[in-house]
Amino acid sequence: MPGWLRRLSLRNKLVLTILVCLVLPSLVSMNVSSLFTRDAVRTQVTDSSRESMRIVSQIVNTQMKNMIYVMNFIQFDEELQPSIRELGKANEGTDMGDILQYKQTIAKRMSTVIDSFGNLNVTVLLPNNEYVASYTTFSFNPTDFLKKDWFSDVEQVSGYNVKWIGVEPNYSQTTNQPYLLSAAKPLRKNDTTYGYVIVGLEPGSLQDLFSQYHNKESMAIIDEQGRILVDKDSSTIGTLFPYFDQLPKEDGSSFVKVEGEDYILLSSHVTPEWQLINMSPYKTAAQKIESFRKTDFLIQLFFLILFAVILLYMVRTLTKPIARLVQTVVRIESGQLGERSNISGVDEVGRLGYVFDRMIDRIELMLEENRREQELKRMAELAMLQAQINPHFLFNVLNSIRLKIMMKGDSENAELISSLSSLLRMTINRNNEYIPLHEEIEINEHYVRLLNSRHGDRVELRISAASDTLLIELPRFLLQPLIENAYIHGLKSKPGAITIASRICEDGRLQLEVRDSGVGMTQERLEELRTHLVNVPAQHHQDSRSPTLSGIGLHNVLERLRIIYGHRFDYEVEIGTDQGTRIVLRFPQQARKEG
């Protein structure tokens, strides 16, 4: 390895290697391909010219098909045939009004087709010298067609074939076109000729199409004798195409020399007698491809040099912050947690430095929080030991108060204290997360009794629980938030009835139902509530300053059951048949511990 190459840095060696590996093959392939792809280039040029001609050929074929369509329409249209036959039978004794009526019917029917094409002149010529024309006949008598040299050839046309006449002087006064492309066919039925139809096409649109090509590239339509029928230069119409003898026998391509220059000669039949031809200089077409290849190489070379410059800059930019990040990691490893890389940027290295610094910040914060949590935990344990009160002492005091009130004859308030004592016992007792259904119903009976004593309203709690469901265990305080919602939102804190029902579903799950006799809600409000329950996650009540029974809420009841029972839990929120709101919960009988 040369000494100067060994002295280059790694990134410079990388850039040099890329330049050699990309530029050298490009130069070699450019010269080698020019030797081995000459035939391919010639084929490509020919294909390109053929594709251009194919598009033009489609347009020309469409014009020819329009001429055939009009002739076939006149021959086979059921509305035209009676009038044409009657007009062909007319003689000196036929009423002139009838003749005019036949001609008007034929002309009107023909116009429905001719008007959609716009550049066709149509003549219906009958053996009795009657005719109908789509153009003005003041200066031209259509019966002159019978004197044309080609008219005898029309008589010889067999079946439904067409005689492609060629170029005819323009007999229509509506345009300034000097020539028309003409075709004719006899009208026959049962081998009997009852008329003729001659269609003339104004070639102006085709000449405009051919005029789009450059001076050295020409396109024309010739007949089977080689006479030019359509060309962008009207002066050449009717003359012999000079390279007719060099045309390929079938539709295809050949190469001819014109004044020492190669030309691609293409031909394609648009009718059995007419051909569409195209001549384009080979050198001009090939130069476009060669120029494209050279331009493509220069563009690749430019971007290659640009890529090498950018690569050198990016390598230098990337390696510098990475080295600084490594130094920071080494210092942190030695115990200096206050060190930071202070690397910024929107690329991967910048984000890596930013995330690394934030990670060290989080570690320091977690260490500080852990220290504070340990201190708070010790303080809380001490406060708990200092403030601990035996719950049984509280229950015994409440029972003593209840007995004294009962002894004074106030059984109603004594019952309220009993309900309060039961609720407090269930609230303080956290040993059992699951209780039987009958205990849950009993808790809610105490809760409704306390509601009635607090608000002075009479809320009737109705129980419709199947006997085989009373011993099934369910999460504690599951029904209380639903009772509270029914009272506050359904009954609007007014008298009414709340029903708790339970049964076993066909699939073995427990179904709990809470419904009220309140005002209910509109269908729009019901849909809004359903959407809200699906899309808004439950927010667990975490306010330690007011630990009430009603703090869980409907959202958290549903979310709690989803966590416990998974996909086997479902619910319904509906409007009752007699107003009110109905909430249905379904979940398995076998409970598992909350996760």
From TrEMBL:
Keywords: Cell membrane, Kinase, Membrane, Phosphoprotein, Transferase, Transmembrane, Transmembrane helix. It is a multi-pass membrane protein. It comes from Paenibacillus aceris. InterPro entries: Bact_2-comp_sensor_kinase, dCache_1, HAMP_dom, HATPase_C_sf, HATPase_dom, Sig_transdc_His_kin_internal. It comes from the Bacteria. The chain crosses the membrane at residues 297-315. PROSITE patterns: HAMP (PS50885). Its main location: membrane. The keyword Hydrolase does not apply. Residues 316-368 form the HAMP domain. Its EC number is 2.7.13.3. It holds the Pfam family His_kinase. This is Two-component system sensor histidine kinase YesM. GO terms for molecular function: protein histidine kinase activity. It is found in: Cell membrane. PANTHER family: SENSOR HISTIDINE KINASE YPDA (PTHR34220:SF7). The keyword Phosphoprotein applies.
